[in-house]
Specification:
Blueprint lengths: L3 E2 L13 E5 L6 H10 E7 L2 H8 L11 E4 L6 H9 L3 E4 L7 H16 L5 E5 L6 H15 L6 E5 L2 E6 L2 E5 L6 E8 L5 E6 L8 E3 L6 E4 L13 E5 L3 E7 L5
Parallel strand pairs: 1-9, 2-3, 2-6, 3-4, 4-5, 6-7
Antiparallel strand pairs: 7-8, 8-15, 9-14, 10-13, 10-15, 11-12, 11-14
């Protein structure tokens, strides 16, 4: 059986995962930020995300200084840039327009992990799932691009949604943290996926997931008796496959 990976461990104050954190230029949930920031070995903002961080941490900015800010720098404001530079945060211009600021920020993060020989369990991104649909798809594209660059799990969190791209092979997902919401799904973004699963209400038995054929959205977990721990979800796929799940909360 594949080693269990717990996607929501990163949001548990008592979680054990060592993470690196990337913040994107979308509304920042301060409750998520506070938990993730304390755990992160490296913290980064992609361009205009620095404006968001500056605003949401107005009462305690010196406790939330990113290790670096990167991007084409067309969104960060002059005053925010000057503030973080005055605090010795590195500002890195990456003018390449063939890749998004998110993708370029991930590349720098991977270089820092390798250079520092950091022991990291996952790279967590805050933001990237709200607003414009094309930007949401660009976030998923960054996950696909990163798959060839690192074996580290990549997670995107925003609002009540989490997205994680499963590599080809077998996976065991721990879904018993108490933070899981009711829904989950397996979405074949990019290519059809031959998929088998357990632990879901509607499992897949060596079936093809593909747009125009079958997509496993609005799924949920296999029922268990009250007081009984929820079973792990197992997924086997022959191609990269998006796992998405709800984070418990009123907006779920």
């Amino acid at each position: 059986m594949a080693k269990e990976f717990v996607p929501l461990d990163c949001l548990l104050p008592s979680g054990t995962h060592k993470i690196c954190l990337i913040i994107l230029n979308q509304p920042v949930d301060k409750s998520y930020l506070q938990v993730l920031w304390k755990k992160a070995l490296v913290k980064a903002c992609a361009d205009g995300a620095a404006n968001r961080l500056y605003k949401v941490t107005a009462e305690d900015r010196d406790s939330y200084l990113p290790d670096y800010i990167s991007g084409d720098l067309d969104s960060i404001t002059d005053d925010v840039k000057a503030f973080y530079e005055s605090k010795n945060c590195e500002v890195i211009e990456t003018p390449d327009q063939d890749h998004t600021d998110f993708t370029k920020c991930v590349d720098i993060m991977l270089q820092r992990i390798e250079r520092g020989q950091l022991q990291v369990d996952a790279i967590v991104t805050l933001g990237g799932l709200g607003g414009r649909f094309d930007q949401i798809m660009a976030s998923v594209e960054t996950l696909h691009l990163s798959m060839s660059k690192t074996q580290l799990p990549m997670i995107i969190i925003q609002g009540r949604s989490l997205v994680h791209l499963l590599k080809p092979g077998s996976h065991t997902l721990g879904v018993n943290t108490g933070l899981e919401g009711s829904w989950c799904g397996l979405v074949p973004v990019g290519t059809p996926c031959q998929t088998t699963s357990t632990g879901l209400k509607w499992n897949l038995n060596d079936q093809i997931l593909a747009f125009g054929t079958l997509v496993s959205t609005s799924n949920t977990y296999e029922g268990v008796a009250p007081g009984t721990p929820r079973k792990a979800v197992t997924v086997t796929t022959d191609k990269p496959l998006v796992w998405t799940m709800a984070i418990q909360g009123a907006e779920e």
